[in-house]
Amino acid sequence: MHGKISLDEETGEPIDINIRSTQDLKIRGGVLANLHKGDSRYVHDHAEPDGEWLTELAEGSGALVLHYFSIVISGSKRC
């Protein structure tokens, strides 16, 4: 990964995130996520008057593939 992250000096919150992948990246062997060489991401956040931070812009090129697995077991009994 190559890029720049700008932080708010007072709160330490990220304001701008601008990154580009320099090679294929697999997180947990590709089970959780895949990011391909040359993909880019840009995110801009801003503070609201009440102090909450909101994402104003999120864009990118290429496909970030996130894999989410959720296994819920409830009310199961062994017989």
Question: How is this structure best described in words?
Answer:
It is a single chain. By secondary structure, the chain is mainly beta. The protein has one domain. It has no helices and 7 strands. The strands form 2 sheets. A 4-stranded antiparallel β-sheet has the order 1-2-5-6, with no helix packed on it. The chain has a 3-stranded antiparallel β-sheet with strand order 3-4-7, with no helix packed on it. Strand 3 and strand 4 (33-35) form a beta hairpin. It is elongated, with a radius of gyration of 18 Å.
Could you name the key traits of this structure?
79 residues; mainly beta; four-stranded antiparallel beta sheet; three-stranded antiparallel beta sheet; disordered C terminus
Strand line-up across the major sheet:
1-2-5-6
Radius of gyration based on Cα positions: 18 Å
**What's the count of strands?**
7
Q: H/E series, N to C?
A: EEEEEEE
Distance between the termini: 51 Å
> What does the overall shape look like?
elongated
Counting structural domains, the number is 1
Give the biggest beta sheet: 4 strands, antiparallel
* Overall pLDDT: 79
Structural class: mainly beta
Low-confidence runs (pLDDT<50, min 5 residues)?
69-79
Helix fraction by DSSP (H/I, runs of at least 4) = under 10%
What is the count of helical runs? 0
Beta-strand residue fraction:
over 45%
